[in-house]
Specification:
Layout: H1 5-16, H2 35-38, H3 56-75, H4 80-88, H5 99-102, E1 110-114, H6 122-125, E2 133-137, H7 145-156, E3 162-168, H8 172-178, H9 185-195, H10 204-221, H11 224-231, E4 236-243, E5 248-251
Parallel strand pairs: 1-2, 1-3, 3-4
Antiparallel strand pairs: 4-5
The structure holds zinc ion.
Zinc ion binds at residues 115, 117, 139-140, 168, 171-173.
Length: 252
Protein backbone atom coordinates (compact mmCIF):
# COMPACT_ATOMS: atom_id res chain seq x y z
CA UNK A 1 0.00 0.00 0.00
CA UNK A 2 1.37 3.38 -0.94
CA UNK A 3 2.21 5.69 1.93
CA UNK A 4 0.80 9.18 1.97
CA UNK A 5 3.37 11.96 2.38
CA UNK A 6 2.74 12.36 6.09
CA UNK A 7 3.10 8.66 6.82
CA UNK A 8 6.15 8.45 4.61
CA UNK A 9 7.93 11.23 6.47
CA UNK A 10 6.91 9.93 9.86
CA UNK A 11 8.22 6.47 9.01
CA UNK A 12 11.43 8.01 7.69
CA UNK A 13 11.90 9.81 11.00
CA UNK A 14 11.18 6.76 13.06
CA UNK A 15 13.34 4.51 10.93
CA UNK A 16 16.20 6.98 11.18
CA UNK A 17 15.79 6.98 14.94
CA UNK A 18 15.76 3.16 14.94
CA UNK A 19 12.23 3.03 16.32
CA UNK A 20 10.71 0.74 13.71
CA UNK A 21 13.07 -2.12 14.34
CA UNK A 22 14.75 -1.48 11.00
CA UNK A 23 18.26 -1.97 12.23
CA UNK A 24 19.80 -1.44 15.60
CA UNK A 25 18.19 1.22 17.77
CA UNK A 26 20.61 3.94 18.83
CA UNK A 27 21.59 4.29 22.46
CA UNK A 28 19.25 6.78 24.08
CA UNK A 29 20.55 8.85 26.94
CA UNK A 30 19.02 11.76 28.78
CA UNK A 31 21.05 14.14 26.65
CA UNK A 32 19.57 12.75 23.46
CA UNK A 33 16.45 14.45 22.21
CA UNK A 34 15.36 14.00 18.64
CA UNK A 35 12.89 16.04 16.70
CA UNK A 36 10.66 12.97 16.80
CA UNK A 37 11.03 12.79 20.60
CA UNK A 38 9.99 16.40 20.90
CA UNK A 39 6.83 15.59 19.06
CA UNK A 40 4.67 16.64 16.23
CA UNK A 41 2.92 19.96 16.28
CA UNK A 42 -0.74 19.85 15.55
CA UNK A 43 -0.97 21.55 12.19
CA UNK A 44 -3.32 19.38 10.20
CA UNK A 45 -1.88 17.27 7.44
CA UNK A 46 1.34 19.17 6.87
CA UNK A 47 3.93 16.39 6.42
CA UNK A 48 6.85 18.60 7.43
CA UNK A 49 5.59 18.93 10.97
CA UNK A 50 6.71 15.41 11.83
CA UNK A 51 10.28 16.68 11.57
CA UNK A 52 9.69 19.98 13.34
CA UNK A 53 10.30 20.11 17.08
CA UNK A 54 7.78 21.66 19.44
CA UNK A 55 10.60 23.55 21.12
CA UNK A 56 13.19 24.68 18.53
CA UNK A 57 15.61 26.10 21.09
CA UNK A 58 15.59 22.88 23.10
CA UNK A 59 16.10 20.91 19.88
CA UNK A 60 19.14 23.01 18.99
CA UNK A 61 20.64 22.51 22.45
CA UNK A 62 19.95 18.79 22.32
CA UNK A 63 21.53 18.57 18.87
CA UNK A 64 24.61 20.40 20.13
CA UNK A 65 24.85 18.04 23.10
CA UNK A 66 24.88 15.08 20.70
CA UNK A 67 27.53 16.77 18.56
CA UNK A 68 29.74 17.77 21.51
CA UNK A 69 29.66 14.23 22.88
CA UNK A 70 30.68 12.79 19.51
CA UNK A 71 33.24 15.55 18.96
CA UNK A 72 35.08 14.76 22.19
CA UNK A 73 34.95 11.02 21.56
CA UNK A 74 36.18 11.43 17.98
CA UNK A 75 39.13 13.46 19.18
CA UNK A 76 40.22 10.49 21.26
CA UNK A 77 39.55 7.90 18.56
CA UNK A 78 42.33 5.45 17.74
CA UNK A 79 41.77 5.38 14.00
CA UNK A 80 40.13 7.23 11.15
CA UNK A 81 37.58 4.43 10.78
CA UNK A 82 36.62 4.68 14.46
CA UNK A 83 36.48 8.47 14.21
CA UNK A 84 34.16 8.32 11.21
CA UNK A 85 31.89 5.86 13.00
CA UNK A 86 31.66 8.12 16.06
CA UNK A 87 30.96 11.26 14.07
CA UNK A 88 28.22 9.57 12.04
CA UNK A 89 26.40 8.48 15.20
CA UNK A 90 24.54 11.76 15.85
CA UNK A 91 22.88 11.41 12.45
CA UNK A 92 21.11 8.30 13.71
CA UNK A 93 18.92 10.66 15.74
CA UNK A 94 18.10 12.99 12.89
CA UNK A 95 14.96 13.22 10.87
CA UNK A 96 15.39 12.27 7.27
CA UNK A 97 13.50 14.22 4.65
CA UNK A 98 13.57 12.74 1.19
CA UNK A 99 15.00 14.43 -1.88
CA UNK A 100 11.51 14.36 -3.31
CA UNK A 101 10.19 16.44 -0.40
CA UNK A 102 13.18 18.77 -0.37
CA UNK A 103 12.87 19.47 -4.07
CA UNK A 104 9.37 20.78 -3.41
CA UNK A 105 10.30 23.32 -0.75
CA UNK A 106 11.95 23.99 2.58
CA UNK A 107 10.59 24.03 6.12
CA UNK A 108 13.39 25.24 8.40
CA UNK A 109 12.48 25.56 12.08
CA UNK A 110 15.34 27.78 13.29
CA UNK A 111 17.50 30.55 11.84
CA UNK A 112 21.18 30.71 12.72
CA UNK A 113 23.24 33.88 12.38
CA UNK A 114 26.79 32.64 12.79
CA UNK A 115 30.37 33.58 12.03
CA UNK A 116 31.79 32.44 8.69
CA UNK A 117 34.64 30.73 10.55
CA UNK A 118 35.40 27.32 9.01
CA UNK A 119 35.25 25.64 12.44
CA UNK A 120 31.68 26.71 13.20
CA UNK A 121 29.50 24.90 10.67
CA UNK A 122 25.92 25.14 12.04
CA UNK A 123 24.63 21.88 10.56
CA UNK A 124 27.51 20.09 12.30
CA UNK A 125 27.42 21.76 15.68
CA UNK A 126 23.64 21.42 15.97
CA UNK A 127 23.51 17.93 14.44
CA UNK A 128 20.92 19.21 12.01
CA UNK A 129 19.64 17.86 8.73
CA UNK A 130 18.92 19.52 5.42
CA UNK A 131 15.98 21.92 5.66
CA UNK A 132 16.25 22.17 9.46
CA UNK A 133 18.23 25.42 9.61
CA UNK A 134 18.10 28.72 7.75
CA UNK A 135 21.71 29.84 8.01
CA UNK A 136 23.29 33.27 7.55
CA UNK A 137 27.02 33.64 8.03
CA UNK A 138 29.56 36.42 7.90
CA UNK A 139 32.82 37.05 9.70
CA UNK A 140 31.88 38.28 13.17
CA UNK A 141 28.15 37.39 12.94
CA UNK A 142 26.97 40.98 12.79
CA UNK A 143 23.50 42.31 11.97
CA UNK A 144 24.45 43.59 8.53
CA UNK A 145 21.68 44.75 6.21
CA UNK A 146 21.58 41.65 4.01
CA UNK A 147 21.42 39.44 7.12
CA UNK A 148 18.48 41.37 8.54
CA UNK A 149 16.72 41.22 5.17
CA UNK A 150 17.32 37.47 4.94
CA UNK A 151 15.93 36.99 8.43
CA UNK A 152 12.89 39.08 7.55
CA UNK A 153 12.32 36.65 4.69
CA UNK A 154 12.62 33.58 6.87
CA UNK A 155 10.38 35.00 9.60
CA UNK A 156 7.86 36.67 7.31
CA UNK A 157 7.63 34.00 4.61
CA UNK A 158 8.82 30.78 6.19
CA UNK A 159 7.40 31.39 9.65
CA UNK A 160 10.59 30.58 11.55
CA UNK A 161 9.98 31.02 15.29
CA UNK A 162 13.60 31.23 16.49
CA UNK A 163 16.74 33.18 15.59
CA UNK A 164 19.94 32.14 17.35
CA UNK A 165 23.06 34.32 17.05
CA UNK A 166 26.21 32.23 17.43
CA UNK A 167 29.53 33.78 18.46
CA UNK A 168 32.52 31.51 19.02
CA UNK A 169 35.77 31.21 20.92
CA UNK A 170 38.82 32.76 19.31
CA UNK A 171 36.85 34.70 16.70
CA UNK A 172 39.27 36.34 14.24
CA UNK A 173 36.79 39.02 13.21
CA UNK A 174 36.30 40.15 16.80
CA UNK A 175 40.06 40.04 17.30
CA UNK A 176 40.47 42.25 14.22
CA UNK A 177 37.93 44.69 15.66
CA UNK A 178 39.97 44.86 18.88
CA UNK A 179 43.20 45.46 17.00
CA UNK A 180 44.63 48.80 15.86
CA UNK A 181 46.05 47.18 12.72
CA UNK A 182 45.14 48.80 9.41
CA UNK A 183 42.29 47.08 7.58
CA UNK A 184 41.02 47.28 4.02
CA UNK A 185 37.95 49.52 3.53
CA UNK A 186 35.63 46.53 3.30
CA UNK A 187 37.08 44.88 6.39
CA UNK A 188 36.85 48.17 8.26
CA UNK A 189 33.15 48.34 7.43
CA UNK A 190 32.71 44.72 8.51
CA UNK A 191 34.27 45.19 11.97
CA UNK A 192 32.66 48.59 12.67
CA UNK A 193 29.56 47.15 14.40
CA UNK A 194 31.77 44.80 16.41
CA UNK A 195 33.86 47.75 17.62
CA UNK A 196 30.74 49.45 18.92
CA UNK A 197 30.17 46.48 21.25
CA UNK A 198 33.67 46.46 22.75
CA UNK A 199 34.40 47.39 26.35
CA UNK A 200 37.88 48.16 27.68
CA UNK A 201 39.39 45.40 29.78
CA UNK A 202 37.45 42.54 28.23
CA UNK A 203 39.29 39.50 26.94
CA UNK A 204 38.60 38.14 23.47
CA UNK A 205 35.89 35.67 24.44
CA UNK A 206 34.13 38.25 26.60
CA UNK A 207 34.15 40.53 23.56
CA UNK A 208 32.72 37.70 21.44
CA UNK A 209 29.83 37.34 23.90
CA UNK A 210 29.20 41.08 23.94
CA UNK A 211 29.16 41.17 20.15
CA UNK A 212 26.68 38.28 19.96
CA UNK A 213 24.39 40.00 22.48
CA UNK A 214 24.60 43.26 20.56
CA UNK A 215 23.82 41.52 17.26
CA UNK A 216 20.71 39.93 18.77
CA UNK A 217 19.46 43.29 20.03
CA UNK A 218 20.27 45.05 16.74
CA UNK A 219 18.12 42.61 14.78
CA UNK A 220 14.99 44.07 16.32
CA UNK A 221 16.36 47.62 16.44
CA UNK A 222 16.97 47.48 12.69
CA UNK A 223 13.83 45.65 11.62
CA UNK A 224 10.21 46.59 12.20
CA UNK A 225 9.15 43.16 10.96
CA UNK A 226 11.37 41.26 13.43
CA UNK A 227 10.42 43.66 16.22
CA UNK A 228 6.76 43.09 15.51
CA UNK A 229 7.10 39.31 15.44
CA UNK A 230 8.96 39.34 18.74
CA UNK A 231 6.34 41.61 20.31
CA UNK A 232 3.58 39.31 19.02
CA UNK A 233 5.25 36.33 20.67
CA UNK A 234 5.82 34.47 17.40
CA UNK A 235 9.58 35.01 17.34
CA UNK A 236 12.29 34.36 19.90
CA UNK A 237 15.78 35.81 19.44
CA UNK A 238 18.67 34.49 21.55
CA UNK A 239 22.44 34.81 21.50
CA UNK A 240 24.99 32.13 22.28
CA UNK A 241 28.66 31.26 22.58
CA UNK A 242 30.21 28.22 20.92
CA UNK A 243 33.45 26.80 22.32
CA UNK A 244 35.51 25.22 19.54
CA UNK A 245 37.62 23.09 21.90
CA UNK A 246 34.72 21.36 23.64
CA UNK A 247 32.14 21.60 20.87
CA UNK A 248 29.71 22.93 23.46
CA UNK A 249 27.34 25.85 22.93
CA UNK A 250 25.94 27.91 25.78
CA UNK A 251 23.19 30.48 25.73
CA UNK A 252 24.11 33.99 26.74
ZN1 LIG B 1 34.53 34.23 13.98
Amino acid sequence: MALDRRSFLLKSCLATAGLLGLGQAPARGSEVTTAADLGERDRGNDPWQVCRPRDPLQALLAGNARFAKAWKAADAAASQRQRARILSRPWEHNCYTSARELSGGQEPWAAILACADSRVAPEWIFDAALSDLFVIRSAGNTAFTAAVGSLEYDVGHLGIPLILVVGHSGCGAVQAARSADALSPNLSELVQPIRSSLTAGEDLNQAVRANARQTASQLTQNSELLRGAQAAGTLTIRSSFYDIQSGELSLI
